[in-house]
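By convention, each integer encodes one residue's backbone shape. The lines below illustrate.
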Amino acid sequence: MHNFETEIRRDQPALPPIKITEDESRRLSSLANSTMDLFPRVAQFLARELERASVAAENDLRGVVRMGSKVTYRDDGTGASREIVLVYPHEANIELNRISILTPVGAALIGLSEGQRIEFETPDKRTRGLTVLAVSE
């Protein structure tokens, strides 16, 4: 079975390295675990991202997407840029461009640095690519 998984993963693009603080990692892991029944696909995606993230010190995260960060990203499929703030679910507000970490885009962006690109599967099974253009607090 391990070989089969390796075969599948070989076709997927390599995921970019991501960084997160220990505190955010703990909070987001708890959030992913507590919402696994309600939002299984995005909670599993978030949990996988957190597992592969390296833990970094607070002062080593300049230009890295964190909770509360203002992020400008490009949708690589359409070429359109968008500026959002990454927030916890209870703070989400689409009209104010406050995007929940419990969305595929939010889970994909966490921990990325300016210039990094990630591809992920959308709920309708399409592959979507995003590139982080700018990050600010």
Remarks:
- The radius of gyration is 15 Å.
- The longest helix spans residues 22-34.
- The domain at 17-136 is CATH 3.10.50.30 (Chitinase A; domain 3).
